[in-house]
Amino acid sequence: MKKVISFAIILLFCSTLVVLGLHIFGVNSQKKSFDVSETRQTKTGVYAKVLETVLGQTEVYNYQRMGFNKGFIRFSPDCRCLAVGSETGDVLLYTTEGQLIWKKNMGLGKLTALEFAPDSQTVLVGETSQQGCLLSLRVKDGSELWRQASDHNLGVNIKEKTYPGFVAIRTDAQGFIYAVAQRYVKQADKASEYFSRIYKFAPNGERLGQFPVDSNMDGWVNWLDVDKAGSKVAFCTGNFDPGSYQYNQLIYCIDGNVQQLLWSNTAECTPPYQTVTMRTSPDLTPDGKYAAGITSDGRCFLYAGDDGRELWRRSISKPQKIGGVYLNAAGSFAYIIENYAVFTTGNTFNKANWQLPTPVEQPNSNSVFIFDLSGTLVNSYKLGGMVEQMAVGPKMAALAIGRNVRAKDPAVHGFYILTIPEAELVDCAQTEGGPAVAVDISADGRYVAGIEAPLQLDDGSVIGAYKLTLLVRR
Amino acid sequence: MYNRDVWEATPGETLLHNTDVRTKILILLVLAVTILLVDSPRSLFLLFCLSLSLHVAARSSFERWQVLMVFVLFGIWGSMTSQALFYAREPRTVIACLLPPGTPGLGALTGGVYIYREGLEYGAIQALRSGTMLALGLLLNWTTDPRQILRSLLGWKLPYELGFMLITGLRFLPVIFQETAVVLVAQRLRGYEPLRTFWPRRLLQTARQTLFPILARTLRRAATLAASVESRGFGRGLIPPPLPQWPRGESWFCRSLIIALAGVIFLKVMDSLQFNGLFYLPAWRGIYDVMKVWL
Amino acid sequence: MIEIKNEIVAFDGVSFTYKHRSIPSVDNVNMRVDAGEFLLLTGATGCGKSTLLKMLNGLIPHESGGCLKGEVTIDGVSTRDLPVAAMSRMVGMVFQNPDDQVFSTTVFAEVAFVLENMGMEQEKIEQRVAESLRLTGLSDKTKASVHSLSGGQKQRLALAAVLAARPQVLALDEPISQLDPQGAAELMQVLQRLNADLGITIIIVEHRLHEVLPLCSKVAIMASGSLLWQGDREEAYRCPELFNTHGLRLPQPVTICQQLGVTPSTDIKEAVAAIQQCYMVPRSQPPIISGIPCELAHKRKDGWKIGMVKAYDIKLPSLRTRHLTFQYDGTAQPLLTGVDFSLYPGEFVALMGSNGAGKSTLLHLLGGLLKPKAGSIEIWGRKHTYTANEVGVVLQNPDFMLFNSTVQEEVTFALQQQGRLAQAGWTEHCQDISQRLGINGMEKEFPLALSRGQRLRVALAAVLASRPSVLLLDEPTTGQDIGHIEDIVGVLQAYAAQGGSIVFCTHDTEVAARFADRVVVMGAGEIVADANPASVFQDDAMLAACGLKAPAAMLLSRALYGGAALRAEEVVSYVQQGCLGSYAGRNAVAQH
């Protein structure tokens, strides 16, 4: 009996230490590799899971406060690597076979953007911190090649913890880097203040230009896009508070040297909203001929890339007052895939309080709409949950589907792959219940990777985990 | 566990046995301060592993490892359980619901009983801290003559009263464990099953019944020990005997440790200033990054 | 001619009252001890002798907090004028339990402690430590762990630890009370050498007079805090009533000599010679083994020597062990090997042997404190279930058994646990036991605050209250004066008369010989002898091998007339009856 007890103590001690050690050190503690030929873990089986691995522990949110756990995921242009930026501050580089090449922690910085250089040799990382840096990491070993700070332009208040950060990064065919940095300040009187700039860097990190040259923009800029030649850079500005701003247009396009404004355009607000913005758009065609965007109030736009003319606009979701509250389906992503403009909508938005559920679900919420370039709706696809992120491949779109604040059905969470323009489901890999929060598809469409976040249900239990899933087409 | 030999210092020929007691005390103190300063689970885990590896180096017996393991396990799981249930800070993530708030009676009264992930992690971190101290404390106790500890502490101007209290603790802690077993058996022999149930009332009764005799015995022992050591020239008026030469290597090692600790304290202050938004040195960004992971 | 004596210790009108007490524990003591004397300070339990001893090195008054009147001087220096630390160079103090005073890990460190406190240089310390260890016979143990020492060695270490300071006076408080006869003899030999060779003054407080008296030169007897009597050893022999009235046990040869009216001596040869000078003692018949018949067997390493005499054939043993074996985990040697032992109702068995022989282990196994590795224990023919009403155990240290708030709760505790007492009450049986053990009137007292003797008796009452079939006592006579021992034995004999079975561990051969029906001797984890006391104590070889010594009465009777007497009275009776009319001395029988 004593021997049994001794053995039990040793076993418990060792296993406790191992579990603790793995929990503290090992993000791959719950790594699962799959045999592609034998498993069938997706809806249609067109894609198969290669890897599932926990990326670390993050705070778990419920339906009322969900959507803040993010993740960044990018396939290299040569389709050999996959870069992942996690909420825990790690940048991980995997092969598309699922092997971890390196892992690097960003320390103080909070990861806010991730992109590959077009030659697939460097990973560009945007972070928000006291200095708000853009870093270039070597793909081979994760070593830092250079970093550029933004605090000297955007300022920093370490006492109030209002830090600058790079929030979006794009590259052109030559490898020039275009990035947007911003800083948000909530004043004591609750008024919002923004400082934003667009930067252009050479592949070696040299700063080539900035827009505006002498001052910051007074609105937020979350997103930008650049054409393949690097001649146009489009972005959108926004503000929480209605008021008088210098950068009060909806969409801007500047030259490739990020010095001069080429054009801008605006759109009146849709009542009852007093402000409007494009949160995660616009998107420029590679040739720079078109720019597409979707606004927060649910309107889609197509602009001429050369002069910014509004070619057409379509209203997907007009705010309506139902049950005493205004609601609409908020627009989220806009991409132009070949000759089609693809727009997505999110959950039905309650204007009175975005955290409260709406009495009804807006019919066009949580959907994908595909228009041809003349503005004709070609197809649409209704998804069960919010499109948390969208990525485009060859005639394909990969969608990370997350929470549905009204239906609260975890079964809809997963990574969806649709054909464009047919809007047919190629495959769907369901998560373990947590909402999908990030997704990317490789340039050849062979690989899809996504990040799932854990979710706390109303009964207090937690489903899902903060983890990466890698799929490969059979 | 109830065997007093397991608890008492035994002579040996390992590096740790032969290390000067001042070096050992200093390592203990430096690590104690370090684990209080450090919040990084990684560092705490490594420090804990270091303390365990020192036991390997000291060739602690299997019985001693058992004692250490049991205490560490109690510490880890006790701390994790209590923190998992009662963790009150935000954010906290419910990973399991033990008692839904809708449960009639208790559910409404308690507002539900949950296991919080952050509580588990916080508990584990605290347990790593206490486990490291426990492991090092036991190591010092097992590999060092109490007399040497006393000499060193008195040499460092520790008040006589504290020195004697320390010696009494070191001397009688092992005996208390042994005698606890005897008292528990004595209770059983008189028809009382001390550990039959774990109801609080019963546990209190057992604790009282066990504590009384042990306390009485320990007090008598302490009185004898006090009389004995005083009769051997150890008393209030004692001029601490000169300490033997501190081996040069160990002395330098300790100085390096103190400098390292001062460095850690300085870094921690800098990190704290940064964290609280009081002072940030942009040139130190790389160091801040390292500190975030390891401090 | 005036004899010039070098006085080293002087008590002048010394009284001491402990804090929070109204009655002085030491009351107006005047005493002188000369340099080089070996003084035995004795008296009944609680008479104040230990308190007096603590005055020698200033523990009283410096660390006591009580009120000291009068003057204690050591070599002309008042203990009031020097701190205890300084006094330690003049007076070395050794206490009762070696485990409570030794606190280093190695023998060297323990001895060096006092020298370090004196601020001595390391080189000198090493010399002094070596010297002290040589004097105490521990030279080969310099680097040994203190845990590896036997009880006797530990006590010698405690002695070496104070001896290193080269004190002029050694004060020892019951230093042999916890030791087996062998350990006690070793320590006493060392003390004798220190006294004779180095001229160190020795003041020893002890109850075991038969072991100390032969070595001492002076005796002081205390009673109720006062110094009742002091004088030379030989003078003490002439005052037997002084010892008897204060619960002190004179060595058996002295008692015999006194009762026979010859010059008393603790030495057997001298006593025999003295008796033979006055009496024509006829040789007796071959020894008659008296007492209750029982299994008579001597087991030695070379096998069974004495045949088996079956007894109690028709009776079921109340306790029986079969091939009982015990071994601590991780140890190479078993502590107990194949012990077969039976205990019958009404038996009063003394379990003897040197420390480490396995007797405590056996007792603990029988009591359920340990679990056997192999073999079985049966109570009334059934497997031992370790419930309270089957076996009662009184531990050597009664403190561990006292965990209630009052004596009454303590005595009734087991009954309440067994549900035999509806509420906390005081049955007639409890009353009877308390009265017999002399703890009546203390029902509301806090048990742990009582004196050691009282605590032992409360523990015994608490166990006897539940009327166990078998009663096991571990060293119940340790530190008790003969008066208390007789009280306890009286209760135990009454219990045995009612069918109870008793096993008690003891080192005291006189107590075993006097009170036990049967003596079981253990050696190296085996039972080496199991017979009535007369048989067991005649086997000198076995006794020597087991570190025991036959009672002095038996040795004396054997030398005197080839007898096997166990008690002094038996020898006196034999001599007086066998030599009726042959003595013409002062106390001649014929004259009575």
Report on this model:
The complex is a heterotrimer of chains A (474), B (295) and C (592). With 474 residues, chain A is mainly beta. Chain A has two helices and 37 strands. In chain A, strand 12 and strand 13 form a beta hairpin. The mean pLDDT of chain A is 86. Chain B is 71% helix and 3% strand. Chain B has twelve helices and two strands. Chain B has helices spanning 4-7, 15-18, 21-37, 41-57, 62-86, 106-110, 117-143, 146-155, 160-189, 200-230, 248-275, 285-294, and strands spanning 94-99, 113-116. The radius of gyration of chain B is 23 Å and the shape is flat. Chain C has 592 residues and is α/β, with parallel strands linked by helices. In chain C, strands 12-11-22-21-15-20-19-18 form an eight-stranded mixed β-sheet, with helices on both faces. In chain C, a hairpin with a 2-residue loop joins strand 4 and strand 5. Mean pLDDT of chain C is 81; it is low at 287-314 and 588-592. The chains are: A mainly beta (474), B mainly alpha (295), C alpha/beta (592).
Spatial arrangement of strands, main beta sheet of chain C: 12-11-22-21-15-20-19-18
* Low-pLDDT windows of residues of chain C: 287-314, 588-592
Percent strand of chain B: under 5%
3D shape of chain B:
flat
Average pLDDT of chain B: 82
Question: Could you tell me the number of beta strands of chain C?
Answer: 22
- The number of distinct β-strands of chain B equals 2
Give the assembly state of these chains. Answer: heterotrimer
Structure class of chain C: alpha/beta
Largest sheet of chain B: 2 strands, antiparallel
Class per helix and strand makeup of chain B: mainly alpha
Key phrases:
heterotrimer; A: 474 residues; mainly beta; 5-stranded antiparallel β-sheet; 2 helices; 6% helix; globular; B: 295 residues; mainly alpha; two-stranded antiparallel sheet
Task: Please describe the topology of this protein.
The complex is a heterotrimer of chains A (474), B (295) and C (592).
Chain A: H1 2-25, E1 32-33, E2 47-54, E3 61-62, E4 71-75, E5 81-86, E6 90-95, E7 100-105, E8 110-116, E9 122-128, E10 134-138, E11 144-148, H2 151-154, E12 165-171, E13 177-186, E14 192-201, E15 207-211, E16 224-226, E17 232-236, E18 251-255, E19 261-265, E20 283-284, E21 290-294, E22 299-304, E23 310-315, E24 320-322, E25 325-337, E26 340-350, E27 367-372, E28 377-382, E29 387-393, E30 396-401, E31 414-419, E32 425-430, E33 436-441, E34 447-452, E35 455-456, E36 462-463, E37 467-473
Parallel strand pairs in A: 3-35
Antiparallel strand pairs in A: 1-2, 2-37, 4-5, 5-6, 6-7, 8-9, 9-10, 10-11, 12-13, 13-14, 14-15, 16-17, 17-18, 18-19, 20-21, 21-22, 22-23, 24-25, 25-26, 26-27, 27-28, 29-30, 30-31, 31-32, 33-34, 34-37, 35-36
Chain B: H1 4-7, H2 15-18, H3 21-37, H4 41-57, H5 62-86, E1 94-99, H6 106-110, E2 113-116, H7 117-143, H8 146-155, H9 160-189, H10 200-230, H11 248-275, H12 285-294
Antiparallel strand pairs in B: 1-2
Helix pairs in contact in B: 3-7, 3-11, 4-7, 5-7, 8-9, 9-10
Chain C: E1 7-17, E2 26-34, E3 38-43, H1 49-54, H2 59-62, E4 67-74, E5 77-78, H3 84-87, E6 91-94, H4 98-101, H5 107-117, H6 122-135, H7 151-163, E7 169-173, H8 181-198, E8 201-205, H9 209-212, E9 218-223, E10 226-232, H10 233-237, H11 240-245, H12 252-260, H13 268-278, E11 297-300, E12 303-304, E13 319-326, E14 336-343, E15 348-352, H14 359-367, E16 374-379, E17 382-383, E18 391-394, H15 407-417, H16 428-437, H17 452-464, E19 470-474, H18 482-497, E20 501-505, H19 509-515, E21 518-523, E22 526-531, H20 533-536, H21 540-545, H22 552-561, H23 568-578
Parallel strand pairs in C: 3-8, 3-9, 6-7, 7-8, 15-20, 15-21, 18-19, 19-20
Antiparallel strand pairs in C: 1-2, 1-4, 4-5, 9-10, 11-12, 11-22, 13-14, 13-16, 16-17, 21-22
